[in-house]
Design a protein that fits this description.
Chain A has 189 residues and is α/β, with parallel strands linked by helices. Chain A contains five helices and nine strands. In chain B, helix 1 crosses helix 2. Classes of the chains: A alpha/beta (189), B alpha/beta (291).
Chain lengths: 189, 291
C-alpha cells in the first residue's frame, strides 16, 4: 500500500459527509445544477468532488468499478483504505468511477430489475469542466428547462428510454458535482 | 478523547446513514417508487415517525433549522419529542416558522405557507403501499407496480362513487407521479394533494416499520386519480378559521363543551398564529402580540 493512500479522507466524517450528502441530494434532485463538494483530498487523477462522493456513498456493501484510466494502484489503495468497497467488473458494480471514455460502453452497467429498478448502478463521471450549457434537460426536478455540458446525448437518451430502469449519473469536475438521474429527458441543441 | 457518552451526529451511525442516503438518492431518481431500506430500531415506537426520523437524520447538516409538525401543529407530543431528539443528538437549531425552516418533518400535513427551493419536507408514512388495503400480498403489489397495473385502484374509487355518490376518500388520496408510479402521499388530507405537485422543495417519504423510502423531486408531476365525470376536488370544512378568519386553510373541528358547541381552527398552528399576529382575528380569536 502506498503511503498517500492513508491520507486525504474526511477529518470529521459525520458532519462532512452530511454536508456532502446534502449537496449530492440537491444535485440529483435538481438535474443540471452545480453544487460544491469539498472536504477530501483524494490522490490524482480523482477530483475532489469524485473523492467526496465515494467517501460519502461507498462502503463495504457497495461494489465499485474503476474505469480504465482510474484503475491505478494508488486509487485502488485509497478507495480500499477509506471505504472498504470491493473493486469489481462493470457488470457487478453499484458505483462506477472514470471518465466518460473509461466507462464506455455504458450498457454494461446494472439498470435494475423491472420490479426493483432501484438495484441500478450510479456512475461518477469525471469531466474536464462543468457548465450550465449544452444539451437541454427536462423532467422531474427541473422547473422549466436546464442545460448541462454532457459528454454525449445518445447514451442518456437510450437510458431514459429504459425508465423506470436505467443507471443514474453524477458528473464531477474539481470541487463541483452535477446530477443526472435516469428520469431526465436529454435533447441535443 | 471525545465524550464517550455522546451520540454520533444525528444519532445514527455512519454506515446506517450511508445506506439510507443511497436509498434516498435512488428514490429521487425514480419518483414515486418505493425503495426498500434496512430500517433501524429507533428510540421511539413504530407509528411515531421512525421512518421520517431516519430520513431526517440522514439529511440533516449542522447548519439546518428544523421544524417538526404533527397534523399541522408544532406543539403536540410527537412534534415536540422529535424536535427535542434532534436538538439533543444533532445540535441543530429549531423553529416553528415554516419560512425559516430548512428541513421540515411532518406527520399528515403540508404547511399552508408555500415551500421554497432549499427546503426539504420529510413525511412520516405509516403504510407506503397505496395498493396494500386492496391487495395484501407484497409479491402481488410489486408485480402490479412493475406492470403499471393500477386498475384495482380505479375500481376502489369507482366503488366509492357507487356507494356514496362521490369519491369518499378524504385523506391518503392516491396520486400518479410523472405518469408512472401510483404513490401514497401518506395520510395527508386530500386538501393538501395539489401542493404535492410542482413543489419547489424536495419531498422525501420514510416508512420505518414497512422499510420503504420514496421521494418527489422538486417540480414533479403528481396527479390525483379521478374520473372525467367525477373530477378530483380538494375539500375542507366549509367554514373560516374561528381564530384567524382564514377562509382558505385546512381546518380542525374542535368540540368545546358537552352541549354540541364546536369551533373550527387552522390545523397549521404557525400559519394561524402568524395571521393573528398580522391582525387577522376571527369571531372567537383574541389578538396576539405582534411579531
Amino acid at each position: 500500500m502506498t503511503p498517500e493512500a492513508l491520507l486525504g479522507g474526511f477529518t470529521d466524517a459525520p458532519r462532512q459527509s452530511a454536508r456532502a450528502f446534502r449537496a449530492a441530494l440537491e444535485a440529483m434532485s435538481r438535474p443540471g445544477t452545480l453544487w460544491p463538494l469539498e472536504g477530501a483530498a483524494p490522490p490524482a487523477p480523482l477530483s475532489v468532488a469524485a473523492g467526496v462522493l465515494i467517501l460519502t456513498l461507498c462502503d463495504g456493501t457497495t461494489p465499485l468499478h474503476l474505469g480504465g484510466s482510474y484503475d491505478l494502484q494508488v486509487v485502488r489503495d485509497w478507495v480500499t483504505f477509506h471505504t472498504g468497497a470491493p473493486l469489481v467488473s462493470a457488470e457487478e458494480a453499484h458505483f462506477a468511477l472514470g471518465t466518460w471514455a473509461d466507462l464506455m460502453p455504458v450498457d454494461r452497467f446494472a439498470i435494475g430489475l423491472p420490479d426493483y429498478p432501484d438495484r441500478a448502478a450510479t456512475l461518477i463521471v469525471e469531466m474536464p469542466s462543468l457548465s450550465a450549457q449544452g444539451p437541454r434537460l427536462t423532467g422531474p426536478g427541473i422547473a422549466v428547462v436546464a442545460h448541462l455540458n454532457l459528454p454525449e446525448t445518445a447514451a442518456f437518451r437510450a437510458n431514459r428510454a429504459l425508465f423506470p430502469q436505467g443507471f443514474d449519473t453524477y458528473l464531477t469536475s474539481g470541487a463541483h458535482v452535477a446530477g443526472l438521474p435516469r428520469s431526465t429527458i436529454v435533447e441535443a441543441v | 478523547m471525545t465524550d464517550q457518552t455522546a451520540y454520533n451526529f444525528a444519532y445514527l451511525d455512519e454506515q446506517t446513514k450511508r445506506m439510507i442516503r443511497r436509498a434516498i438518492l435512488k428514490g429521487v431518481a425514480i419518483p414515486g417508487y418505493q425503495v426498500p431500506f434496512a430500517s433501524r430500531e429507533m428510540p421511539m415506537p413504530y407509528g411515531w415517525g421512525t421512518g421520517g426520523v431516519q430520513v431526517t437524520a440522514a439529511c440533516l447538516v449542522p447548519e439546518d433549522r428544523l421544524k417538526v409538525i404533527d397534523q399541522g401543529a408544532d406543539d403536540t407530543t410527537n412534534a415536540v419529542s422529535i424536535r427535542r431528539f434532534f436538538q439533543r443528538t444533532a445540535g441543530v437549531a429549531v423553529t416553528e416558522a415554516t419560512a425559516e425552516a430548512t428541513v421540515i418533518q411532518t406527520r399528515h400535513r403540508i404547511p399552508e405557507t408555500p415551500l421554497t427551493e432549499g427546503q426539504i419536507l420529510v413525511y412520516q408514512v405509516p403504510i407506503p403501499e397505496p395498493l396494500r388495503f386492496l391487495e395484501p400480498r407484497e409479491t402481488e403489489t410489486r408485480k402490479m407496480h412493475e406492470l403499471e397495473d393500477y386498475g384495482l385502484m380505479h375500481v376502489k374509487l369507482y366503488e366509492d362513487i357507487s356507494r356514496h355518490g362521490q369519491i369518499a376518500t378524504a385523506y391518503d388520496y392516491p396520486v400518479k407521479v410523472e405518469g408512472r408510479y401510483v404513490m401514497d402521499p401518506s395520510p395527508i388530507p386530500k386538501f393538501d394533494n395539489p401542493k404535492l405537485a410542482g413543489n419547489a422543495a424536495i419531498q422525501l417519504f420514510g416508512a420505518g416499520r414497512e422499510q420503504r423510502i420514496y421521494a418527489l423531486p422538486p417540480y414533479s408531476e403528481a396527479i390525483s386519480l379521478d374520473f372525467d365525470d367525477y373530477p378530483f376536488a380538494a375539500s375542507k370544512a366549509d367554514h373560516a378559521c374561528d381564530l384567524c378568519a382564514a377562509p382558505d386553510s385546512y381546518l380542525d373541528e374542535v368540540i368545546t363543551d358537552d352541549q354540541g358547541s364546536r369551533m373550527f381552527v387552522c390545523s397549521d398552528t404557525d400559519f394561524c398564529a402568524s395571521r393573528r399576529k398580522a391582525g387577522h382575528i376571527g369571531p372567537m380569536g383574541t389578538p396576539m402580540a405582534g411579531g
